[in-house]
């Protein structure tokens, strides 16, 4: 069987994803929570989001950087919070952003989602905080492999048409890698916030 460039990129991503997830799992609960509080503090001090800003957060899974301090910050600062929800369609699954209010459910991936009907188009969010497995200085993001965020913000690959929202990764500093080989569908991040500070990304090639 001939191996194509896309096959080798996919294989490299699988290997890198496994390595970085293992490093996340090796953290103690105390280390994980401490880093999450530092990330929230860096966001509060360095991003300056105003009250009423339309902000998408995420409900963290077990080995992701805990998003609870971000929710607490959002309440203190008066942000309008939205959460991603996976909508099943016949041929594909899309992600919508729903106001974080009222009842929730746990989806088949083990992630909490809002059940409400107050949705907002991705284009009208001000900031989206994005979970990730790995990232590089050029804003390339390695996710879990399902592609939900890349599909939701695919229009950003033509930035002259629309510039919102700012996509900001949330990560541990050790999740930065020298280079992630881009795939055709990848949408770049504008910045990444870690426990060490805010890493602005070079969004060019």
What would your notes on this structure say?
By secondary structure, the protein is α/β, with parallel strands linked by helices. The chain contains four helices and twelve strands, in the order ααβαββββββββαβββ. The protein has a single domain, classed as 3-Layer(aba) Sandwich (Rossmann fold). Helices cover 26% and strands 24% of the residues. Helix 2 packs parallel to helix 3. It is globular. The N terminus is likely disordered.
Strand elements, count: 12
Q: Please bin the fraction of helical residues.
A: 25-40%
Taking all residues together, what is the mean pLDDT? 88
Overall geometry comes to globular
Query: SS-based structural class?
Result: alpha/beta
In CATH, the topology is named: Rossmann fold
Strand adjacency order, main sheet: 6-3-2-1-7-10-11-12
State the name of the first-level CATH class.
Answer: Alpha Beta
Which keywords apply here?
two-stranded antiparallel ribbon; Rossmann fold; 12 strands; 205 residues
């Amino acid at each position: 069987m001939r191996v194509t460039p896309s096959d080798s990129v996919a294989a490299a991503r699988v290997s890198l994803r496994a390595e970085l997830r293992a490093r996340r799992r090796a953290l103690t609960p105390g280390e994980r929570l401490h880093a999450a509080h530092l990330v929230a503090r860096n966001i509060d001090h360095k991003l300056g989001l105003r009250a009423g800003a339309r902000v998408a957060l995420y409900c963290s899974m077990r080995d992701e950087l805990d998003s609870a301090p971000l929710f607490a910050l959002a309440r203190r600062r008066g942000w309008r919070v939205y959460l991603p929800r996976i909508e099943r369609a016949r041929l594909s699954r899309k992600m919508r952003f729903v106001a974080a209010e009222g009842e929730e459910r746990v989806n088949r991936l083990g992630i909490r989602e809002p059940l409400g009907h107050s949705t907002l188009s991705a284009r009208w969010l001000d900031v989206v905080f994005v979970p990730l497995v790995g990232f590089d200085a050029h804003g390339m993001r390695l996710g879990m492999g399902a592609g939900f965020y890349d599909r939701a913000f695919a229009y950003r690959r033509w930035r002259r048409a629309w510039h919102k929202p700012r996509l900001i990764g949330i990560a541990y500093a050790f999740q930065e890698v020298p280079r992630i080989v881009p795939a055709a569908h990848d949408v770049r991040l504008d910045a990444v916030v870690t426990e060490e500070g805010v890493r602005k990304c070079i969004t060019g090639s």
